[in-house]
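Revision sheet: structure tokens.
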Amino acid sequence: MYAVVKTGGKQYRVAKDDVILVEQIKAEAGEMISLDNVLMIADGEKMTIGTPQVAGAAVSAEVVRQTRGPKIIIFRRKRRKNHRRTQGHRQDLTLLKISGIHPDGAPKQAAKKAVKAADPAAGAVEAAPKKAAAKAAATKKSAPKAAEKAATAKKAAKKAPKKAAAKK
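Predicted:
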């Protein structure tokens, strides 16, 4: 069984346990999502084509991680004009693992329950990063104070009178 889904302006042919890279989707790693824009479902010889979507169909997927694509260099030039412009770009992407194709859309509720069941375990894991963030914030607050002290010391050194050169 496979399906064709549309996400991020692109179409993907997916089957159970496939891993695909799609345009960025706002979701945390480990979270279950549902792709509702299903254009076609094929199960052996039986094929259902949507007009434009298959009514009630859904594909459930798990977010493996958020990542970025390769660096792309854009270089523009105009001949004989000494005009050159270089620009770089990296696309934000989401890695998805397809967990199921649902022609009737019934297991959508099971996917939502799976997210709720995973949240308590995720809450315990998230506590450590919050503590690290609090420590980082504390060091950021103290860093500007140290920078201010260094700046005032430099200003004081500049204002100090210079010794006159010895005359011969």
